[in-house]
Amino acid sequence: MKIVNPANGETLRLLVADEVATIEAKYRSLREGQKAWAARPLKERIGLLDAFGGLLGRNKEELAKTLSLEIGKPIRESRNEIDGAMGRVRYFVENSEKWLSPETVNESPGVQVTREVLAFEPLGVIANISAWNYPYLIAMNVIVPALIAGNAVLYKPSEFSTLTGQYIQHLLFKAGVPEDAFQAVIGAAAAGQALLKLPLDGFFFTGSYKIGRSIAQSLAGRMIPVVLELGGKDPLYVADDVDVEKAAAMAAEGAFYNAGQSCCAVERIYVHEKIHDAFLEALVAETRKLKLGDPLEEATTLGPVTREAHLKVLEGQVWDAVARGAALKTGGHAMDVPGNFFEPTVLAEVDHTMSVMKEETFGPVIGIQKVKDDEEALRLMADTEYGLTAAVFSKSEERAKAILEKLDVGTGYWNCYDRVSPWLPWSGRRNSGMGTTLSYLGIHAFVKTKGYHLRA
Fold this sequence. Notes:
- It contains 14 helices and 18 strands.
- The chain is of the alpha/beta class.
- Helix 4 (75-100) runs parallel beside helix 5 (135-148).
- The chain is globular, with a radius of gyration of 23 Å.
């Protein structure tokens, strides 16, 4: 399997992909080792994952450089991701004991005292097919709470972030997690298909709606937990009471951070007609400040898109919009240079007949639509099959919440965007997925409950 640098097309490394036989062998090893791992005291498992978090910090520069090389993410963003991953580990280390320890939920006094106790047991051996756009953050959401809860994890990093996946395995083993509790599978779609055929006890996937739906259909008869974190078409409404320059700068970052390759990136913007023209001018100016270039250069603020094939998707959305009457304000083209570079693009005068406002973009392209009031903004924001996040920029929290409360999304943002906190559940609705990671609900996603009725 060839690992390619998306910034210049050069081969970084050649790896041997797993075959069905090696994947099955890894699964058998985990099946044999899981009970011994679960039998270790909870505090011991937590301690080993705490050590893993420390290793992330001590190796941050090396990890960030590898991440930038294989994903194309600017080096400063790669460092930010490692910092965020350390924060996720810290959250699970500090909070898992509270949420996984047996809990007496009722006690009835009398001649015969009866206690009712809620206990938690690991699912067993779970699979995690992870994503490439934030491979550390997304992996931490599953790997760390799953291991702490006593599960064994069969982990397949994306073929676009395989080197990062190998680093994760290396540091887990270095921290003391046994090899029969965690195994990484190297490969692309065929490896994922092989995982679907194994008798696993849970399945956790992050990726596109199309693949997520296929996984859900494949596993429907298994009667096992399935958590799917899928895509989004996340809207932002800019109300007429904002500081226009500040709002434009924030919107540009929300749309173009990580080259727009985030499931909760700002993907479509609605702007109140009173400030539309001023906001559009400011957003175009902010977009033109972005510096495309080598992801390892400190000055770079926009790297290449990770997948070469996606350049055609981005071009297709741009020219579909232009053909239907949109105004191309800046960008719009794949660059004629080595690597997968696409100009940061702003489209105005868009509407919902255009794919750029309806289909997931996942790249540095944003459409701006003028609206007359909050009601029209709400109607358009809700016009989607996705339900991941939505954002409102306004001076009024009451005004923003009145809109966000009516939207069928898992996360609402007021004067912020593209944020994921370990303290809050991360979940999508409709085509954005099902199930939950993060928060105490995300800790409980990796266990099954058992109720005890105990009478003295």
